Amino acid sequence: MVLKCRNRTRVRNARHGLTLLELVVVLTILVAIAGILVPLLPNFLHRANVASCVTNISELDKLIQTQQNLNAAYPDHMDNLVIGSGLATYALTGATGEFKQASYTAGSLTTDEAAALTNAGITSVANLVENAGGDWRPTAWPYSSGETTQPTFTPVDSSLKVATLTPFGAQLLGLPNATNYKYVIFGLNKPCTLFRNLATEAPYHFADTPTEDPATYYMCFGAVFIVTRDVSGSPQTLENAKFMGSFAFHDFGLATADSHTKEWWDQNKNDR
Question: Has residue 6 been placed in a domain?
């Protein structure tokens, strides 16, 4: 007789989940990684914001110059930073920032300076308002209580109050700041014809500090134009205003792409 032996195999049940020891090890590793990355997070945000700002400023410079080359005129319907006879209270000027000096102030235009702007294609400006409630937003929609109400525009003439650079603001932007130079600045936002002709959206600047909250302050980009220059110690008004560059609004003043790039490199140097 042949005996048949049946091999019995033990079926090991599959184990689900982690043991307590494994869980402790995993948590320890995660805590160690968090301890390394969390302190670096503000630097990551700062670098991202700086890089984004540099790109936006450079692109705006190209777009404004392209529009002028195509149409022989600069963008129209830019934002006037003056409300009534003074600057909008939510527009960052630098007076309360790091350097404690204002980058720009409210100023008047002479008849010739107004003509220089209009000859260059800047014929009217969008009017800002103070907090109007509703859907009023200082960055995205500072023109009325809601986007259903369209902004109003004011012709550029000698009765118009505009924002002009202070000597400190000209210094921040790397421009000659002699007494006989006069620079006018405007904000670049949705009503501007630049964003209907060559671009789809107006860019905004998002900083990583609570003092630069776009829900509280005007965080659009801006453009500076020269209307009067110094000629042998005397002021001479230009026939056509000339674009001098784009910039970003900050609590310490106005910032260019160059100043942002320097800031980025300085931050890298400090982190080493």
Answer: no
Closest CA to 113 of 194, 187, 180, 192: 180
Mean pLDDT in residue range 8-19: 58
CA-nearest of 160, 193, 174 to 244 is: 174
Q: Is residue 162 part of a domain?
A: yes
List CB contacts of 116: < 8 A, sequence separation 6 or more: 227, 228, 237, 238, 239, 240, 241
Check whether 242 has a pLDDT greater than 70: yes
269-272 long-range Cβ contacts below 8 angstroms, 24+ apart: 271/43
CB atoms within 10 A of CB 259: 22
Q: Among residues of the chain, what percentage have pLDDT more than 90? A: 55
Q: For residue 261, tell me if it sits in a domain.
A: yes
Q: What are phi and psi of 113, to 5 degrees?
A: -70, -40
Number of domains in the chain: 1
Amino acid at 74: Y
Judge whether 142 lies within some domain. yes
β-pair partners for 105: 164
Strands 124-127 and 78-80, by their bridges, are parallel
Listed residue (148, 127, 184, 168) closest to 253, CA to CA: 168
Could you tell me if 56 and 203 are in contact, meaning their C-beta atoms sit under 8 angstroms apart?
yes
Q: Which of 178, 86, 160 is nearest to 124 (CA)?
A: 160
Q: Is 149 exposed, middle or buried (0-12, 13-18, 19+ CB in 10 A)?
A: middle
Reduced to 3 DSSP states, what percent helix, strand and coil does the chain have, rounded to the nearest 5? Answer: 35, 25, 45
Q: Is residue 11 predicted with pLDDT exceeding 90?
A: no
Residue 254 has pLDDT above 80, yes or no: yes
Neighbours of 226 (CB within 10 A): 19
Where in the sequence is the domain holding 122, given as residue range(s)?
Answer: 34-271
What is the C-alpha to C-alpha distance for residues 128 and 152, in angstroms, rounded to an integer? 9
